[in-house]
Amino acid sequence: MTTTESRQRVIEFLPTLEKQLSQQPFIAGQNFSIADITAYVMMSFIKHLEITPSDDHPNLTAWLAKMEQRPSIIAVNG
Q: Which one of 20, 34, 60, 63 has the minimum C-beta count within 10 Å?
């Protein structure tokens, strides 16, 4: 799979995360879980593909901001 194909797959997946987060506060439900950690890591990596959530992803953008305020993520990111 090429970088272009990988990039396109991620772009196509963002609406899935957006829909999920429109229905609940975290990726897998009402509580923070490994799914949120995994999604946060993915969101960190996709910056290298020059992909960021757009205005079409308000819930994903809000979730990402909330994740960046967690003490554990602040400790890792500095």
A: 34
Predicted TM-score of the model (pTM): 0.89
Task: List alpha helices for the chain, DSSP H.
Answer: 3-23, 34-46, 58-67, 71-77
* C-alpha neighbours within 13 Å on the C-beta side of residue 54: 8
Asked if residue 44 lies in contact with residue 6, where contact means CB atoms within 8 angstroms, the answer is no
- Token pair in block for residue 42: 């993915």
- Residue by residue, pLDDT tens for the chain (78 residues) are 788 898 999 999 999 999 999 999 999 999 999 999 999 999 999 988 899 999 999 999 999 999 999 999 999 987
